[in-house]
Queue: 2 jobs
Job 1
Amino acid sequence: MNLILQALHAIPAAAIEHLFVLSRATQVEQNSARLCRLRDAQPHPDIAGYCFAQQIDYGFVPQARHPSDFGLLVMDMDSTLISIECIDEIADMQGLKPQVAAITEAAMRGEIDFAESLRRRVALLEGLDEHALQRVYDERLRLNPGAEKLLAGVGQHGIRTLLVSGGFLFFTERLKARLGLDFAHANQLEIINGKLTGKVPGKIVDARGKADWLNRIRVELELQPARVIAMGDGANDLKMMAEAGVSIAYHAKPIVRTQAGHALNFVGLDGVLPLLGQ
């Protein structure tokens, strides 16, 4: 295995040396001040705690792994591809952000069933003018750091992209067109006479729904699970991530970090690329 080290800051030489010894690696390859690879590394129980304390993201990656091994990248939207929770920002237009955000946080921690939490949150938006959705997209929606580098990187290797969200089609469809994503799916907000009704028609895209969409597209592309990468930040992403050959928790809740194959706690989304062997 190779031990990949990444940080937003220059990784101290002392930290590299310490991890070199802990992992019993045979060689250090310094790609930049903020990225290096320790070859022939072995796991050690102290590595995780040390790296977290030093604000270093780490990952054990098979030496033979290459981006061409993969054919599909599946991403959550809110707080993963983008920096906001769209429903919280929509609620802010109604002066209800604290109430909705509290339900969002509980759902992301896995304390509330996602479908029920979504219904409760959307019900609070009843009567909101539909133009509030465009305002959120224009004024508040921002890509997380490194998003465009990540998408360019996977695109160079022919990896297809799926954005699947427990959020709303209004946002996923715009991001799909803007970023050139291959597939996108999310929930629909019911709008009548220009106003949100507070209802979500159809089957809600919950944790099981995300996993089902991953497998639907994977089968369509004739890929084995090992060729799929899935990335998310909340409990609602765990079933989806469990279906993938490589799972990545991005700035995630503790329950997700502990169950994912890799966790990026500090660097941007482009930190995914070294974990794919690039």
Job 2
Amino acid sequence: MLPKDDILKGVENRDEMKRLIDIGEQAIKTWEVVCTDFLSPPVTVEAQQRFSPLTDIHFMVWGGYPQAERTRIAIARSELPLDVSQVPIAAIDVAGNFLFDPATHRDFLGAILGTGVVRDKVGDVIVLGERGAHILVVPELVPYLEANLTQVRSVSVKTREIELEQLKVRPPKTKEMTTVEASLRLDAVASAAFGMSRSKMASAIEQGNVRVNWKTVTQASHPLETGDLIAVQGKGRAEVGEVSITKKQRYRIQLTRYI
């Protein structure tokens, strides 16, 4: 059995971690690969942190394409091979003419949930502008959505399954920048990354609107390091790159802003 108390100690997503422990123990007992539904990024990150040290099991994270935010986790005994082919994910094309009634991510997701589907069965929604969207789902949902997802906003749509290789995923647009700061405090680095005053950034942090590596951080003084991902509600994301020390003993920080 897995060390349940140790895994759950201090976790933020307690209910989700309990379900993951149950899945892990099922994988150990049955000698089968067992998959979660789609998980949000904070849950996935915490699961990786908690399950990576375990020796009885190993896991595979996959969302249908490399940059996917919502992902499924497949768990198996450590003795068994595991790869992305064992993480079942299907893609659907939701096609219609949205030229005169544009639909957003929220509109497509709302239309799916309006058919009675629960959120955990749906992965990323890739909006394709005036022609519709590509949506990742658990495979067992495909026939149901093909029959029942017929309208998004005022637009009639045709829903059909496509291969994952047909997904139209646009590479994210990025902006590279460099800032020099007296410290690696979150408020200092994030204000530079997002072009906000330090006081406004500190306020956003205190209000719980800023995440680091998908975890909400409410301390403006939280120290950052290379590889950390900063997300500010309504502003997007930025990644901390190489950090070096200047002659005046300040921090020169490379930043990548996703826009």
